[in-house]
Amino acid sequence: MTVVHHEASPELRLGRLGGLFHDTWVVALRNTRRMLRIPEIFMFGLLQPIMFVVLFTYVFGGSMKIGNTTDPNVYKNFLMAGIFAQTVTFATAGAGAGIAEDMHKGLVDRFRSLPMARGAVLTGRTVADLVQTALTLVVLAGVALIVGWRPGSMNPTDIGRILGGFGLLLLLGYAFTWIGALIGLSVRTPEAATSGGLIWLFPVTFISNAFVDSSQMTPWLRHIAEWNPFSATVQAARKLFGDPGLSQSHAWPMQHPVWASLIYSVLIIVVFRTFAVRKYRSAEG
Amino acid sequence: MEAAIRAEGLVKTFGDVRALDGVDLEVPPGTVLGLLGPNGAGKTTTVRCLTTLLRPDSGTAHVAGEDVLRHPDRVRRLMGLSGQFAAVDEYLTGRENLVMVGRLYQMPRRAARARADELLEWFNLADAGDRITKNYSGGMRRRLDLAAALVVRPPVMFMDEPTTGLDPRNRLALWDVIKSLVEEGTTLLLTTQYLEEADHLADDIAVVDHGRVIARGTADKLKAQVGGERVEVVVRDPARLDDARAALVRHAQGEPVVNERMRRITVPVSGGAGLLAEAIRDLDAIGAELDDIGLRRPTLDDVFLSLTGHAAEQGNGEGATTEGGDEDADAAKDKKKDRKDRVSQR
Ligand SMILES: Nc1ncnc2c1ncn2[C@@H]1O[C@H](COP(=O)(O)OP(=O)(O)OP(=O)(O)O)[C@@H](O)[C@H]1O
Ligand SMILES: [Mg+2]
């Protein structure tokens, strides 16, 4: 059989931008396929926020003061945007571990030896994570509705605003997967990427308005919480969902949460994507 | 004609380790260069520098006429790489892995699929093509990785220890693959730790040690440098060693070496199998009973010893100490003994 007649050429079919989209698509498909073959990861990723919804609703529900009420129903509606936001940020660990594993298993060498668009391996991974995050959010929103979350319970909303809220949540999740990508490229093992991708998320998501009314924190903590990029998205989602417990703070991100959320997320993407792609290209693993 | 692979003065350090210390290579189009060297010699580092995975600290490299440092993307379209460790996605099937690689070369989907089928067939993986590679054996993964390197029919190929981990049948099959690639004009750089393999596949051999090319030439030339083949005889009765030695001396190309403890005589020869038969007849004629007789070819260890004065694996003095083993059990031990004999011979 004739297997080689040299067809390879130094030119590629697609241009620069076309190549980036094409390669990203191929890598995203590959990662999505992997996720389908290891459904445990998705399942556990789903179980954790569901547990949070149930525990926070029923355990903390009666003792949390939102504004000037401790009505568990108010807390329930307050809580959901916070849990959604925390859930999307946990995609960070998945992205980091996935990329660290690709490095570890030598797959990154295979990719780097191919004439791929720069950044396609990482972008493909983050896009696949975005799909997974979106699925997680759909299921989680269903659970939230079951336990009694009612968008519009405080302020009027509509389907467009609700979708807008989820859009901002997804954008935040996407931004955080780029942080995960950089972590994954910087550590030596996939295990380190998982724990390294998670631990710092606890202070970021708890020193915020996600689970408690930040106006009741000590002043220095309150300032951190109100300027925390994560809080901006929580506040924006709450606002768009018509949920109770909006922060009344004069801090700019709390006054203009939708803009703040957009700006923060885009900024995170630009900064971390730049560093991650640079690190990927110079990785000498 | 311009070289298909050319490296000049490649230097690469990792902290204190000078992995490459000025590597120069030149591979004419359509030929095979075997990069031969012990663990840690710098073979993989050389391959990684040439395949755009690693940026050398200094030096230049060209592959298929393209500058590796200046136009890595152009080089990537013209070369195939199979690294030392198989790089395949565990959760994709063999076929999906190959199609993915084809797609990343921007082959149309249909062409990528057809090519994947062809390669699976070629590498004896057709039956396993639809299983996820996590359950492949090491040798199967290795073959899939080699197939992935051939997806675009690249004019220049790099294979880092391609036969490590293959069983004898698949090793021979891979040798055939390599030969047909070369027949069709592919330029190949392969690394190996076995002189025999380099001998069989390569037009030219470059011996690497401590990040430098310390010798270069055809297998015959290197072997001649080492001293060529020799007949090795193990005599049953130690008392007959001298008689046996006397019987063999007329075949010797140099001084026979006697190891009394091992009851072994090593005779440098030239003349191959026919000579072996003569030696057996001569020993038979004097009635010397033998435990073993064989023609030994130089091993990588021998080449190293002769080129560098130190053994391939590690350290310098180790070989000169007492004889350790007493069984000719396995090849590794055999090799070691060869080395020790040579050391004590000096
Ligand atoms: N990424 C790295 N970081 C630090 N040191 C490295 C790295 N890669 C290689 N080295 C060192 O460089 C030297 C050459 O290594 P290289 O992998 O090129 O050897 P090799 O000839 O391929 O050996 P082997 O036969 O074991 O594959 C070794 O001393 C090795 O420890
Ligand atoms: Mg190596």
From TrEMBL, chain B:
Bilayer disposition of the protein: Peripheral membrane protein
Disordered: annotated span: 310-346
Cellular component terms (Gene Ontology): plasma membrane
EC number: 7.6.2.2
Enzyme class of the recorded protein, top EC level: translocase
Subcellular location per the Swiss-Prot or TrEMBL entry: Cell membrane
Principal place of residence: membrane
Similarity field: Belongs to the ABC transporter superfamily. Drug exporter-1 (DrugE1) (TC 3.A.1.105) family.
Keywords: Antibiotic resistance, ATP-binding, Cell membrane, Membrane, Nucleotide-binding, Translocase, Transport
Domain of life: Bacteria
Pfam families reported for this sequence: ABC_tran
Name recorded for this polypeptide: ABC-type xenobiotic transporter
Record carries keyword Nucleotide-binding: yes
NCBIfam families found in the cross-reference section: drrA (TIGR01188)
Compositionally biased spans, kind Basic and acidic residues: 330-346
InterPro entries documented for this protein: AAA+_ATPase (IPR003593), ABC_transporter-like_ATP-bd (IPR003439), ABC_transporter-like_CS (IPR017871), ABC_transporter_ATP-binding (IPR050763), DrrA (IPR005894), P-loop_NTPase (IPR027417)
Residue span(s) of domain ABC transporter: 5-235
